[in-house]
Amino acid sequence: PKTLLNLFQISVEPIFLLMFFCFSLVDAAGTNFLLIRTCTMVFGFSEANCTHRISPSVQEIIQPYTARIIMGKVLIQAIFPAILSLFIGSWTDGSKKRKPFIILPLIGLTIDYAIWLIFIYFPIPPVFFLLTVLPYSLSGGSISLFTCAYCYLSDITNEDNRAFRMSVLTISLTIGMLSGYLVSTEMYKTFHKNINFIVFGTSLCCMILTLLYTIFLLPETVITAEEIENSGERNNRKSFFNISHVKNSLAVLLKGRPSNGRLVLLLLIAIIVIDILVFQGESNFRYLSLKASFHWTVEDYNVFSAILSGVAVIISLIGIWLLNKVLGLSCTFTIALVLSTCFISSVLISLSKSP
């Protein structure tokens, strides 16, 4: 049946737009709340010394402890989804069911925000905030979401429009990030009391909407009986935690390919791993770094991040059109150029002495 979603070719894009809206909405707010909770509960400073612009002497004491908690969260977010990814790819290919591992991480993230609200309301020590990432991580995390989203797009597109649809997905999540930082800034200007409760409550509501959209409006990919028969994985579809899924994933990765295809694939994986490593490090510790260097508030950081996201969207659109369409440069050169600019950006931020 014809629907608005079909008419505008909308599928997984709203999921990532809203999800990254929530990520950026709570980004600095969560870290700042963790700093305040560490300051008051762990080191016993007064509320006045731990809010708004924390003095440099206090920051030197509380930031290392907070950074260790954040590092623990990052490790939990990485380890469990990485293990699950060995099973997810093969299982979804065999069953041709993408939605389960799109829905499960969304449920996990929704529970995460609900736990945050509980922890904000009650005086719980900061170390227990590690529990907030467990539901999302144990349900597959971002690895599961991105894997199944790209597989979903591959199922519903063809070679002519696949690259465009994947670009739209990337632009959607970037717009979500930009919107989240802007809305968070306005929230901090408008609400002064219970701001953390409002921010995480808003994120929880958005995730519930995202979950409802995914369950009821996002159709499952369609596969014929003949395609299932040809997949050769009828038995594997019945069990998720089956070692054959790991074997299949590794076999596909390591099988010989023409024109040094296997080497190219391994190099691409290495590039992606390094890129994600840098992204996770920057995104989780950027606020702490800028707060220590420039004594920024949450509002200052959100404005900076919003500008950064906005520039990224504009430059990406213009850059792809200019480099690929106008100048006809290869995708490999474009990727190298993008990574080089990211490197320069990180160096400039690290060397900056003033905003």
TrEMBL record:
One of its GO terms (cellular component) is membrane. Its main location: membrane. It holds the Pfam family MFS_1. InterPro entries: MFS, MFS_trans_sf. The chain crosses the membrane at residues 15-36, 65-89, 101-122, 128-152, 164-183, 195-218, 263-281, 301-323, 330-351. GO terms for molecular function: transmembrane transporter activity. Keywords: Membrane, Transmembrane, Transmembrane helix. The keyword Repressor does not apply. It is a multi-pass membrane protein. It comes from the Eukaryota. The keyword Heme does not apply. It is found in: Membrane. This is Putative proton-coupled folate transporter-like protein. It comes from Triatoma dimidiata (Kissing bug). The lineage of its organism: Eukaryota, Metazoa, Ecdysozoa, Arthropoda, Hexapoda.
